[in-house]
Amino acid sequence: MVTDADLDEAELERQLARTWTSKPGFWGAIASVDHKVVARRYIVTAFVFLILGGILALAMRLQLSQPEARFVDADRYNQIFTMHGSNMMFLFAVPVMEAMAVYLVPLMVGTRNIAFPRLNAFSYWLFLAGGLLLWISFALDTAPDIGWFAYVPLSGPEYGAGKRADIWAQMITFTEVSALAIAVEIVVTVFKQRAPGMSLDRIPLLVWSMLVMAFLVIMAMPAIMFASSTLIMDRLVGTHFYNPAEGGDALLWQHLFWFFGHPEVYIIFLPAVGMVSTILPTFVQRPVFGYLPLVMALIATGVLAFGLWVHHMFVVGLPRLGESFFTASSMSIAIPAGVQIFCWLATLWSGRPVFKTPLLFVIGFIITFVIGGLTGVMVASVPFDAQVHDTYFVVAHFHYVLIGGAVFPLIAAVYYWFPKMTGRMMSERLGQWAFWLIFISFHLTFFPMHILGLQGMPRRIYTYQPDLPWAGLNLFVSLSAIILSLGFLVFFIDAIRSWSFGRPAGDNPWNAPTLEWATSSPPPPYNFRSIPVVDDRNPLWSQPDALPVSSGLRTDRRELLITGVVEALPEARESSPQDSVWPFWAAIATSVMLIWSIFSPWAVVWGSIPIAIALIGWFWPKGEAEDES
Amino acid sequence: MRAPLILLPLPVLLSGCGGSQSALDAQGYSGALLRDLIVLIVVVCLVVWIGVMIMLAWSLTRRRDGQAGDSRGSEQRLGVWVSGAVAATVLIIGGLTILSFQTTRSLDRAGDPDLTIRVRAQQWWWQFVYEDADAGSFQTANEIHIPVGKEVRVRLESTDVIHSFWVPSLGGKQDLVPGRENLLTLRAERPGVYRGQCAEFCGLQHSHMAFFVIAEEEESYRQWAATQRQPGAQTGEAEASAGKAVFMARRCAACHTIRGTGATGTTGPDLTHVGSRRTIAAGLMDNTRGSLAAWIADPQTLKPGNNMPLVPLTGDELRQLSAYMESLK
């Protein structure tokens, strides 16, 4: 048995590299279970879906730029807005945030790989298959046309002809299984794999936010999977969950959908605020103000997220008392949001801002998100909502919170962690261009939509008549959307160019305080030569010269250090799985079963046989102890 | 042969028919309450936003003196400021919540309705049934008349998917959910034409599912209602009479009702007084003889996917039929 205590640095690195590096070549890449490799794939794929979803948005803006336009017909338009919403929520926003967690959490807690790395690889392949299913159906003109919310009975057997609604529902299954897989990995990684000494009150805020997000995924996603599965059963085998004529209920769908759908917003938003709380201190060079209130705000938001869903249903005719409860709970989410905003302002106030691109996007986030939060307070009021529900006011509101509140921090995060992920800096000059283009044109694009909504323009209409007073603002919005897409183009050009030609970054280009900056850029397959020991929230600031490290892990096989949940005291050495192609085959077998089951219920029976075979290969015993205390 | 009428340029036909459709142009009791609430909340939120922005700008631009403010005293001062701001947030949020509850209570002010209209929404038009046991019930489509200053109870039902009934100038929206009945009360304070539109995505032609509420003085409302109760007018015009024969012969009657004739279909809108309506096809076009002919000749081009089939007619038949429709005042 060889442990890292006995070796000098060069020999240690050589042995760790041999143990942890994936095999070269195509099958080596397919089999890799390195969290960084999987996360990079996830992030790139999610950004490809962002581009595709953005193109759909431009198609909608083209159609709406003039009244009674005929660029896109009604059927195609309905497919496009359904695709845009489903794609952005299920294929871009949630996966990209989870992928950032897959990349960053193991590095930030100081471990060598994520928990359940084969499940992680499986998750990516399944996500990819779900995305392909949706986009291939769109290419074949059979994409879902029922909205990303798929309300019954419109999506039910009677009114949703063909297989369009089934494709939507099964795409949900793909993305939710992959999201749940990652959530479980994050929870275990954060609870059991933290570096020695990283007690609960020393966990970086991004890791806290990812942990809360993972719990939200675990509790919210089952509702939507139940909903989509019962919808498929209504459509395929004639159950009547949602058929009022047979004792079902159309509103049951809305409860299930929004019990997932509202936490979904926070699944996207919480990682974003975690990014802000992590990036901001680096660019003012002081610890974040109010660590404890910020953690409490994350948890409070996560808990409240499950008590708000009815505010999506204020006009369906529910009892007044119930509606009032949900008005109060929806309003109260502004309090943890306020706590975070004020803590960030205090951090800015007492620090020395360095106006690099990540900080610009963080400032853009604060300006924009406060507007989105305040319009959120507006729609939390039942009577206010009665006028703006399902209008462009709501479209404006949620683009303010999703783009302003989540995509701005995400872009900041890309500029911030790009050097760590690739070893190269992105361009500061292009970054500033991207920021100003995106920030200004975002507001030009989405602010007028508030006014359109109050002027009575409903959502999800493919056209409107010339005598309605909406044409001017719609044209303005469409033109602004072109500038907005130019801003994103600059960002993507910068990212692609810098990937190969950026200035070399070094280990810690921003003088940041958290553990991911303690290793090389990009990190080696084993992440850290030796597992660091932590005695502070900002270890790289309190120990600027060299972190203390622990030793005793074997180098001849993949081993992780398992620590306690609260104090992060070492408990055991645990083996970490080898690379394997079986997760890939398991994902293929699962995809075949899920897509087949759109057409025949027997797929669940026969399709499970290949899955079972793949799982047997996946879990084939190694004949070696998995952990040693 | 198709009638030359349909060669009219589309934008001329597709002009709908005016009417206010804005939450800010409130002309009803509920609408005015909601507009006041909206304006008030927006102003409060604007003040909050400006306050936060001032603090943000100040923190970014303020002059830093020598040492970074990391000392214990300044951290405590920051803590007091942050706590104060959070307390202010709680107060503002609480205030807005109470304000919202109060508006809800004012809206719910129950009273006996002066008039009840049953709405049956369907893909993609509105069926309105005036229920009056004494004077007699009657139906219209995509257009209701109501007396100014009276409480109008609207009973909302759907026969297929979920729709949403929304006349912004008069008040908030309410969904029509299959298997349920929702209620809404309208009260127009001023005479006028108020446009409404389906607000819940309901399929292919969700965009073309509008209707009009015409609020008028009691007297003209009574006259209108009395006319609507009459069976379809017998016309003296020869072309229209011929059109009636076409209507009966060409299976139009299988889907449409014209009271006082043999036409008793219930799939499509009741056409007993179609000539009196301002628009056709759920607000798609102004109601003229030309647009009627265009619609009958090719409903699928004007509103793709709607449930009215294309019935092949000769040019003469089309002219006669549209003359008949127009005569049903």
Structural account:
The complex is a heterodimer of chains A (629) and B (329). Chain A is 64% helix and 2% strand. Chain A has two domains: 547 residues, Cytochrome c oxidase-like, subunit I domain (Cytochrome C Oxidase, Chain A, Up-down Bundle); 47 residues. In chain A, strands 1-2-3 form a three-stranded antiparallel β-sheet, with no helix packed on it. In chain A, helix 5 runs antiparallel to helix 6. The longest helix of chain A is centred in the N-terminal third of the chain and has 36 residues. Chain A is globular and about 80 Å long. Chain A contains 20 helices and three strands. The model of chain A has no long low-confidence stretch (mean pLDDT 95). Chain A has 629 residues and is mainly α. Chain B is of the alpha+beta class. The N terminus of chain B is likely disordered. Among the domains of chain B are: 99 residues, Immunoglobulin-like, CATH 2.60.40; 112 residues, Immunoglobulin-like, CATH 2.60.40.420. Chain B contains eight helices and twelve strands. In chain B, the strands form four sheets. Chain B has a five-stranded mixed β-sheet with strand order 3-2-1-5-8, with no helix packed on it. A three-stranded mixed β-sheet of chain B has the order 4-10-9, covered by helices on one side. In chain B, helix 2 packs antiparallel against helix 3, helix 5 crosses helix 8 and helix 6 crosses helix 8. Chains A and B meet through helix 4, helix 10, helix 11, helix 12 and helix 13 of A and helix 2 and helix 3 of B.
